[in-house]
Amino acid sequence: MDTDLDPLWQDLDWAIGQMLIMGWDGTEVTPQIRELIADHHLGSILLTAKNLKSAEQTAQLVQKLQTIAHSSGHPYPLLIALDQENGGVNSLFDESLICQFPSSMGQAAASSPSFSSSPSGNSSGNSDHLNLAYQIAQATATEVSACGVNLILGPVLDVLTNARYQPLGVRATSDDPQEVSQYGIAALQGYKDAGVATCGKHFPSYGNLDFLGSNLDIPIITQTLEELSLSALVPFRNAIATGKLDAMFVGGCGIANPSMKVAHACLSEQVVDELLREELGFTDGVAISECLEMEALQTEMGVRTGTIMAVQAGCDLVLLCRAYDVQLEAISGLKLGLENEVLTRERIYTSLKRVLKMKRGCTDWNKALNPPGVELLKKIHPSHLALSMKAYDDSITVMRDNEKLLPLNQSMHQEEELLLLTPLVKPLPASAMTKTILEGSSTRIKSENPMHDKWIHRERSAIMSGEGVFRELGRSLARARHGKLLHTSYTANGVRPVHESLIQRASTIILLTADANRNLYQAGFTKHVAMMCSLLKASGHKKNLIVVAVSSPYDFAMDKSIGTYICTFDFTETAMSALVRALFGAFTPRGTLPGTLRKAPRKAVQNSAGGKAKTRTQHWLVESYDVERDNKGLKDLLFAMARASAPNHQYFYAFGPQSFSLSTRQAFIPTGDPEHEMVMEEQHLVVRNSSTGALYGFCSTYYLPTTCTGVIGAIFVDPSKRNVSIGYSLHRRAVRNLLQKHPDIKQLQLGCCIPGIFPGIPFDHSDTLTSAITPSSTTSTPSAASSGLKSWFSSTCGWNLSPSSSSASTRNRTRKIFNLILPSLQSWSSPPDLPTTLQRAGVSFDLIYGRTPSTPTPTAEQESALSFVSSHSSPEILHLYRLALFSSNPTYTWIIRAKIQSPVIERGEQLVGTIVISSDLGREYPSLPSSASSGGAEFTGGIIAPVVSSSSMTGQQANLVLQGLVMLGLRQNKRDKMACCLLSWVSNSYSGDGDVGLGLGLGNNMDTLLGMGFEVQQVWEQVTNGVEQFASLG
User: Fold this and answer.
1) Which CATH number do you get for residue 989?
2) pLDDT of 425-458, one tens digit each?
3) What CATH number does residue 163 fall under?
4) Alpha-carbon span 286 to 315, nearest angstrom
5) Can you tell me the mean pLDDT for 233-250?
6) Which residues share a beta bridge with 250?
7) pTM for this model (two decimals)
8) Of 32, 154, 637, 647, which one is least surrounded by beta carbons within 10 A?
9) What residue stretches are annotated with the Glycoside hydrolase family 3 N-terminal domain (predicted)?
10) Measured in Å, how far apart are the chain's first and last C-alpha atoms?
11) d(CA 996, CA 81)
12) Which residues are CB-neighbours of 149 under 8 A, at least 6 positions away?
């Protein structure tokens, strides 16, 4: 525990609550938000337009929230955050007390000088143009602070690198990084002087996003780090350098360039900890994540895992906007991350200290419980209103007026008709119309750009209302000219007869566009109307066209066929009032378009290094497998694996959740009561999407007490989720679990014969048989897939796959395990001389059947077989033999014993070998190929796990015993009408360890088996390492 922190924070539930910022829908305190504050110690609230009806209601609501926190024992007040960027993005609207100001680009247009900028972002010699930005920021922060808000999500520091096509639009200042820096720093100072905390956004940049089309696609940044550093990162770096930036909002966009591959910026350590903190120096500030309720993130990984990743990446506040169940999921995710040691107490305390520092700088209990409220707002409103009107008047920009149409009262006669054509748009969240709609009812009209809206946060509060948005503009125009006005809307249906008729009547047409570069129907409609006016004018009619861009100024900035072009930078009521005044000569518009207005062709920037994209290991939340919760998810995962598997691995289709379970396979030790004593323990792990229930990865683990061996039996990762560290996270957690749960553990094993999923790392059929069957071979040449797996386990997971022969490394071993197939059993015949040779060598055989209801306890023969296997093989194979003897279906499974005459043994016979015969092998062990090669599992017989002791025999005798056991097994399966026969789990010796394999050191015996008609079907490499190999994970 950090000595600088209050002892209260020893309870990590309190600390976790301070790392979350949450919101809800509704204008009153709900039981859910009350519970989050009181019981889960939530420390920060995000308010949106859906929470706020008026300034007075906002102040009362915030006071209630702070009172709940105070009475619940919170040491510090809540952070109350608000989006109040001005322009079209405000959350709080109250036309009588809260003033509307221009957007960031509008403010720059109202005061754009000729820039001469220093690298620090400070203008050289002239700062008067920045005074308006400072005054607006201070006024805005003072107003929201009076209502109890103490954290304003601003300033916007994005550079519009690709200005014409970005949804951020006028929320950004311009396409000039130095200009953005200057205005951003001016706003930052204004916020700070009003006493609120600040949050720059949207790091690393929303100014040049590529959208891929689907609502689930994440917009991505394709610029290289070098390009970002020269442009997009400049304002962030300069703002950080002032020391006045309290927090940074890290976006959820992806990054894809030759040097970086990031799915979500706010979940990437490379973006938050390295780029933001280390390179840009934002070491002590609070990093706030994008809202993790975004659909793409929930679909890809789930909120629980996303929350942990955000904290791992370096975020201090994780944003969950409104869904209560998702918010609880995030809280449980952080707690589970701590329990699983994915997150550490130190990491939690690092974020806690940053958050508390920000709280101390912007609030205290006296201020939080007693906001100035309405009285202060009434006092400052007149001066702020005057500032608002001046700012909007100064922002109106006339880019062209080639035919001198302005003012209209000089270019139009009173009796002439004026036509207003307006698009269908959403009313702005903070507007009189939205307030009216919320208080009444209205029909929703679907946005044409729902994906873009998600990334500019408008979806949180905006409601569609068609042409009603500009109805008041029409009325204002009619009043201003004291004459007739025609007004209609236009849609993606294009120019209709009604439009043609009205254009014929009017002498002047005012046509509004709102982001025509994204809403292409507006561009097409405008060009069509412009062509009509041109043709009518050529035939002698008076047809003046004025195009007004009420959002992005780039709609027709470069299209000189539009002779009169005006920009307002937003379509708030205040902006439209300023437009009317400008059109009718109340003032001369002096606004200028910020930035460069022209875009040089981008040159493709090649990766001079020519290297691969830089990747970082992410730690996914790993949970214990729950049968009831995860059964369906595991089925779906296995099916996805099967569909993506190579033809020789199609046996994945035979897997099911039960394939990994020992509970249905009676894993007993060979002593005492076989009904109760376990020979193997199991625990399985998953990476899951806690929001959808989908499994992205699965790992089966087992423990063998008799040899103190921990086993990783299988690791699966959804093919669509590979290369994002899911497998690494599963492996890491599996190893840690085995080491921590079993203090006596001596070694870890990669691969498991029981359950029969992956006995080891799979070798492909392209591997050379010679290298595969050589017991001492460590230089075999596996296929690319096998090499990739071996490389991953070695370099990423820490396994030693090249065991030393020195005595110090006796627990670091490898061995190969084979599955062989005799494809045409019914045409096979026994070697003619083999029975006679066996008889002369004194080798005899008998058959042991499994337990039946009439023989509930093991017989002497059964116990002798189990004792032999226990002495000469591994616990896994012992478990397999127990399955054979105590199977619920003993009719189809037997054990053949091989005995040899021995003068030192009573009765003259010594047990020297065993083998299991099964006629339903394909159903019991799905990793063995069946239907793919033989037409169905019911026609596939099996001979499993030969165990031959060579300690009391010569190599030639051991080879003869093996042939005899296999021959009898083949005969039995042939009598049972099996189409083919599988000889499974035949093993060579451990590398450098003598005859201690599954019971048989193959050596030249493989040639014997191949000579009997078998073919190699599958090869696996099983690896065992001493626990010291993984000491860092203990």
Assistant:
1) 3.40.630.30
2) 877 766 665 565 555 544 443 444 444 344 444 3
3) 3.20.20.300
4) 7
5) 97
6) 203, 289
7) 0.77
8) 647
9) 13-357
10) 22
11) 67
12) 47, 58, 62, 80, 81, 82, 84, 92, 196
